[in-house]
Amino acid sequence: MPKDVTDVICPFCGTLCDDVVVTVSDDNKTILSVKNACAIGAEKFNHQRLPGRVKRPRMRQPDGTYKEVSYDEAIDWTAKMLVKSRKTLMYGWASTSCQAMSIGHEIAEKVGGIVDNCATVCHGSSLIAIEDVGVPSCTLGEVKNRADRVIFWGCNPAHAHPRHMSRYSIFPRGFFTVKGHKGRKIYCVDCRYTDTAKCADTFIQVQQGFDYELLDAFRTAARGEALPDTVGGVPKEKIYEVVEELKGGRFGIIFFGMGLTHTMGRNHNIDEAICLTRDMNDFTKFVIMAMRGHWNVTGSGQVLGWQYGFPYAVDLSRRDQARHQTGETTSVDLLNRNEVEACFYIATDPGAHFPINAMISSSKKPTVTIDPHINCTTEISDVHIPVAMVGVEVGGCAYRMDNVPIETRKVVEPPEGMLTDEEVLTKINNRVDELLAKGGA
Amino acid sequence: MSEYIIKNGHVFDPVQGIKGDKKDIAVKDGKIVEKVSSSAKVIDAKDKTVMAGALEVHAHVAGPKVNAGRWYRPEDKHFDSHKKPGITRIEGGKSIPTVFKTGYEYARMGFTFAMEAAMPPLYARHVHEEIHDTPIIDEAALPVLGNNWFIMEYLKNNEVENTAAYISWLMRQTKGYGVKVVNPGGTEAWAWGLNCLTIHDPVPYFDITPAEIMTGLMTANEYLGLPHSMHVHQNDLGNPGNYKTTIETLQLAEGVKPKNTFGREQVMHSTHLQFHSYKGTNWGDFESAAKEVMDYVNKQKNITIDTGNVTLDETTTMTADGPFEHHLHGLNHLKWFNVDVELETAAGVVPYIYDPNISVCAKQWCIGLEIALMAKDPMRCFITTDHPNAGPFTRYPRVYSWLMSKKVRDERLNTFKNADKVIGATYLANIDREITLYELAQMTRAGPAKCLGLMKDYGGLKAGMNADIAIYDINPDKFPSDGPAIEKAFGNAAYLFKDGRICVEGGKVVDMGQKKTFWVDAKVPENKQVMHDVREKFLRYYSVNENNYPVPESYAPHQHIITVDATKA
Amino acid sequence: METVTLTVKQVPDLYLECENVNPDAFAGKTAEQIAKMGAYQGKEISTLGEFFTIAGNAGATAADTKIVINGDCTKMKYIGAKMTAGEVVVNSACDMYTGSWMKGGKLTVNGDVHSFCALAMAGGEFTINGNAGNYLGAAYRGDWRGMSGGVLRVKGNAGSDVASFMTGGTMIIDGDVDIHLGTHMEGGKIILKGNANRRVGGQLVKGEIYVFGKINVMMPGYKPSGEVDLEVDGTKATFIDYTGDLGERHPKRKGATVYGHLFMKK
Ligand code: SF4
Ligand SMILES: [Zn+2]
Ligand SMILES: [Zn+2]
Q1: Contact at 8 Å (CB) between A341 and A85?
Q2: B41-44 and B49-52 as β-strands: parallel, antiparallel, unpaired?
Q3: Which of B274, B379, B509, C74 is most exposed by smallest CB count within 10 Å?
Q4: Is B207 touching C (CB cutoff 8 A)?
Q5: Sign, CA torsion B148/B150/B155/B159
Q6: CATH code of the domain containing B322
Q7: Which of A36, A161, A406 to mutate to test the pocket of ligand 1 (most atoms within 8 A of CB)?
Q8: Which domain holds residue B177?
Q9: A311–B71: do the CB atoms touch at under 8 Å?
Q10: Cβ separation of A225 and C247 shorter than 8 Å?
């Protein structure tokens, strides 16, 4: 008899929807159907049963082909690589559990690794901005229950976080928002007319690369100071009008995404948006939130935070201190500058996200990738260690975009004999201990 | 397990009334025992001070706002991250240490228990993840309840039983220890950008006052018979003139009787009283109200307090008092972090520099010390820095030096830039009292243990209690006269035993012990109404499902559950 | 003043952390002792002697010590960082953190420097006879205290995020800068002889920026408030005085609001 697993946490995006229902086969081995998740979320579950999934580690041979090896062989190779390298990039962590990260950090501290996560190519600029000016924010339930002014600035949840608008930000009826969508004014600021813009009451088209100036203009207008006729292509009348509407709300929120993090000035755009949010609190209640993408990238920042005090790009290479400097200890910079000697990738696919030059640099170094599936990165790795899918085949803690942690659920058994991230990392950690006790590789 | 005998030390134990007499302490199987066999390992404590392990009654050491404070302040550990030789991990952070440093530093100072003072229930899993990663010390966490929608709705209708049933349910979900209240009503008001500055300001929409919330929670707390009392961070924190609200709040305890099986005698613990003992109308005419507040505390026996001593450092303030942090940011313009938590609470974080050259900071420093020095009953007044709000907990040794030596504190007081002004606005210059080692043991061991309902096992050296023992390089007959020497001795325990294991030796961490997570399971009669309300609120207003709300067992692998039975209450 | 001359004999293959290469660390040491001081490449600790030929002994104090470095230092970090006195001359380009947290003394780089140089500089004289990278004289991540004192001169161009969170001191750049000059500035003086790309003085609370060349796009929060004749770093000219950033908070002194000033050469 197939059975339903309820309250399942979607393993895909930072919205971390936790109301998914998965129907699994009687033998707990196969996912038969997925309810409540959006298309991209459901697709992630479907990966579990893709044909041709690699079930054992593979090691690249001198002729470039891959040969299946045992977990022990792969782990031994990895441990030796880590012990030998003077400086190792240990990147990824977004699709694994906080428990696994902890073990990874222990390894990094012993072998001199630099632990970096997907924020480095994503919301790292948001983290810099928060380091610089803080951030007034809230949990997603607050938005649902209270928000009557919702701004999407440089983000497109309609595509990237499909259930965000229905669960939290536009449509839901909450405690103080009984009218749902009708009680909210929705704004979209973007350089192009997106599908999210279609849901907005007001669309403001900003000239590409002028978000910082426009945000500064909003702040200037909020203080009642004079503005030039247009800023970033937006007429000043519009700016004053919107500022007054925002002041007139009871609870406003700005959601922002790649349109701010990946355009000119990056962190400064977010910095200015945070400062606008802060200023608006002189008039009403206002908060701001990053639309974080990669599933548990937030969790990686949290664990690094409580263990070392930095949210990403944590340089433990000296083994006697933790350091952090975006632009120096960040993955792409390390690769571009050839500052590391080996690469250890886990639970993400830098091959798909990093600039090409960084990946060319990476491909010349000894590389191990731990990932459930074959991806761009496994194909430039010396060793690929397949593991169970976190949030599908094994549980573990993950953090939502608003930093709320949720213990994810195991819904099906992993393929026979397949290890989890935690198990593989524990074995590597033990092997590293043995090697170090013997005085090196 | 090994046996130890600690010989020839000067023992200070309020539980047995021992005031520095030479007495041997025997340890076996993690407990203090009457005697041990001749094979017991001998620890020579000659010319040393022996006390029970200390207990932290109120600190922010684990959870979402603590961690926000960590990661959004890279500058707090840029030159302060290091690894000491031995088994310890990299430790960093001046004002908000990482979890590793937190565990090590408490242990090095002789602590064996710390209470995380504010756990947002929705983030309980985060709090427990950090507690799990904090080595050596036992910990527990207080869920914040003073702005919780369930609580406010039940108490509006005087439904004490429902309030109690909800608290019991919530403590089980969150693995929580007791009832914490932060700026009651004011933090809910903050969700609309407002605040409740007196205990009679109605909470927007919920139509209840802070006074009613606190009275109701005190009643529910005693109805349940929890080990700890209601633990309150009062309204109007940090504002000149707030002492009247402070006394009015303390008066709410009048006539309320403690009811529990743990030996706890207070019904209200009022935390970081320093921040609530201000006279004056603005920062210009700001003065100490420590006398007014402590006169009341001294005569009202069913309340306990902690100090919240300012340490004169650059630190990071953090509290569930969301509107306060916004206000503070308006004063110093340093980076402001805030998170409002649906249906429950909020939190804010702002860095702050307690600059000895600024007279407001110097006066705050005086007030914190005055509170401890004016306390008539050291069993009801505990030393804290409200870590990291008034300063990092790592400064306890320095705070002790100010409290235990008039010379040391007067040196500090008289060299403030505006010493005359500071002395004129405070009482400290005229106080001669020096806290004795015995009183220190009351204020940091026996007192907090009793207040937290842990006196059966913690805070003393009587046979049968936990073998949590701190030994300091202090000869009471030759108590050090200079500040640095006092600091060094209290900051580097000669030995720390935790559950009978030596975890610190010569100020160095040598064993990670086995930390436990404490929580309270309060049994109440089945309550259909509350369970219905819970279901309803999760379906309609929470952003997580009810089944994903609890803290899984695996987050507290070494849990110690204290069970109370309120089914017949 | 005693002079220690370091000559690079081996270029590091990773990056070498030279936090020991400054007058304060060298003070009181002989050439042999200096050669034994540590330098990290990742987790590997080597000695300065493995990378440099060292000639001459240091003076008794930092103030009595001059360090001259010859050879290729492009892969060396932290040269002159945290120095409080004495003199350092580098006849090469340098990597990151050169002269960062410098409090005093004189540092000259006869070449380019990478990013994060003169970070939170508090005093002394730092001259870069080449180009500088990003975050020159800025604050360390998260800190609100950037460059607070001293004089920093760049003969060439500088990158982006120059002088972020500056609170004091003087920075003179002969060439051009990229985006974000003086962001979050709260004091001090920047003199830019060349052009700025965009976002000059954004979120600026207090302080003065002088621009001799052009700014591609002005921030909207700046408003012209008249013309002034000034002598700036030896150049006499008429400047248009803009006050701003009007989008940012500003302190009050004696009841009057204190704004920042952006002076554009006419
Ligand atoms: S919105 Fe994100 S978390 Fe929710 S179902 Fe879709 S992919 Fe999964
Ligand atoms: Zn508090
Ligand atoms: Zn507190």
Answers
A1: yes
A2: unpaired
A3: C74
A4: no
A5: negative
A6: 3.20.20.140
A7: A161
A8: 58-457
A9: yes
A10: yes
